[in-house]
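seq as requested:
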Amino acid sequence: MGLGALGLQHVLAHGGTSYFPMRTVRSYLAAGRLFAVEAAPDFRRPAWLVYSQEDGRGDWFRTALDGLRHVASLESED
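struct tokens:
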């Protein structure tokens, strides 16, 4: 299902399996409403940053890159 929130509500109401980002289901896992399927494959989603070469890689670039790395580290904690 392409609508994550709708898919999550369906699984919670009717059961089933699906893939959701950890940040979306972390609280449901902690509460015991959902459980992770052991040995299920992980899916990684790349993040891309597009910028103009004319602007160079100023402070904004480092800030954006640090932010992406921080979010990625949160996703991989679990």
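The CA atoms of residues 8 and 14 lie 10 Å apart.
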